[in-house]
Amino acid sequence: MRITGGMMITTLLADLRRAQQRLSTFQNQLASGKRVQRPSDDPVATVDSLRLRARLAEVERLRANAQDARDWLEMTDSALDRATQILQRARELAVRAASGTLPDSSLQAIQAEVQQLQDHLLEVANSTLGDSYLFGGFGTQQPPFVADPASPSGVTYQGINGPIQREVAPGTTLTINVPGDAAFDPAFAALSGLQVALQNRDLQAVSATGIAALDQALDGLLRFRAEVGAKVNRIELGLYRMDEIRVDTEQLLSGVEDADIAETAMRLSVSQAAYRAALMAGARIVQPTLMDFLR
User: What is the 3-state secondary structure (H, E, C) of 65-118?
Assistant: First the structure.
């Protein structure tokens, strides 16, 4: 088979294109730091990359859920702490009043302060995180408690009870809300009962039932705080574990996608030399071919 000048030039151009593609590939890898630029570069690595990126996306979703749940629970604990302080102050006042040694003016002052504590407790029970009420169950967009003089406790609960849940780790879902009526109804009832006893100057009732009701309400708040604290600790452990998973996955992804900079730089240098050699060889081939054509 006779090798013509045209065939030689065609072969030369094909070789130059391949050399240029290799050169461009290594230049892109070096510039981006990524070994896989297109799925065709390494189909197996592409599948692994997609799988690892899906895992990272899932970890980030769960971390966002966990952080949201932690914020909710921490704000809940803060509100329960304030409610606890209110009841503790009310108990101090009840003990003073029950002593039977205070003048009527002091009892009036205690009664007025208990009223202020009731108002403050209503504010705490309607605490929010952003635009969401913490203690209204599913009814997060309206205050769960409203003042109601006709109610024995002085308030009415209008929340919609139900668990607000967050998936905070793989296979782990937590209920993050505390039912407002269970947490606060005993507290409102205790303060209201104390207020009535003080108004009637029934110090026996203050001593016999008022303090006991406050203690019972305090015990309930402390139980809820213990549950909230345990959930926060569980979330913290989950976040720590997910951070470990994220780091491990990012390392695996780096091994799949990232280019070895030193090796890529060496391959780029070799490709540049090969490309220059191909150009020089092509020049020697093309020159006599053109001369033959001119003759």
Answer: HHHHHHHHHHHHHHHHHHHHHHHHHHHHHHHHHHCCCCCHHHHHHHHHHHHHHH
Q: Is 76 exposed, middle or buried (0-12, 13-18, 19+ CB in 10 A)?
A: buried
Confidence of residue 26 (pLDDT cuts 50, 70, 90): low
Q: What is the pTM of this model?
A: 0.76
Cα–Cα distance between 189 and 156 in angstroms, integer?
11
Residues contacting residue 39 through CB under 8 Å, at least 6 positions apart: 46
Pair 119, 127: CB distance under 8 Å: no
For the chain, give the number of residues: 295
pLDDT in tens, 212-239: 999 999 999 999 999 999 999 999 999 9
Residue-level pLDDT at 253 = 80
